[in-house]
Amino acid sequence: MEEEKSDINISPMIDMVFILLIFFIVTTVFVDEQGIEADRPQPGASNPDKDKAPITVHVSANGQIFFDGQEIQIGNIRSNVADKLRDNKVPVIIEVEDKVTSGRMVTVIDEARIGGADKVLVTPSEARGKK
């Protein structure tokens, strides 16, 4: 008995793989990720308004918000920033501790901007031990 020799032709399989590859490349949607714009102070950058102290908002890891050293509710940021900005336009510096959620930080930034802040700077902060 003679055994028949059979070869497997893989050319059609390779062609199909290339066709699928081209299909997935062509149909892939490339999306630019959107993010928030945050101005961070540059190290060693000089402040042209040295006589004007910036407004400081500190957000602690447990979610407490301190405006110029005093604890406030998130709804009061807008009015406090507006009151401080009546006299002069100064930047608002938001100090954020490590464990603060991004949603909380964005809410504080939005409240400061609604209050009239043209320039909002976000900077990391160490725990201050405020209660």
Account of the protein in words:
- With 131 residues, this protein is of the alpha/beta class.
- It has a domain at 55-124: Nucleotidyltransferase, domain 5 (2-Layer Sandwich), CATH 3.30.420.
- The chain has helices spanning 11-27, 77-85, 102-114; strands at 55-59, 65-67, 70-72, 92-96, 120-124.
- It has a 5-stranded mixed sheet with strand order 3-2-1-4-5, with helices on one face.
- Helix 3 (102-114) links the parallel strand 4 and strand 5.
- Helix 2 (77-85) packs across helix 3.
- The chain is rod-shaped.
List the helices and strands and how they pair.
Layout: H1 11-27, E1 55-59, E2 65-67, E3 70-72, H2 77-85, E4 92-96, H3 102-114, E5 120-124
Parallel strand pairs: 1-4, 4-5
Antiparallel strand pairs: 1-2, 2-3
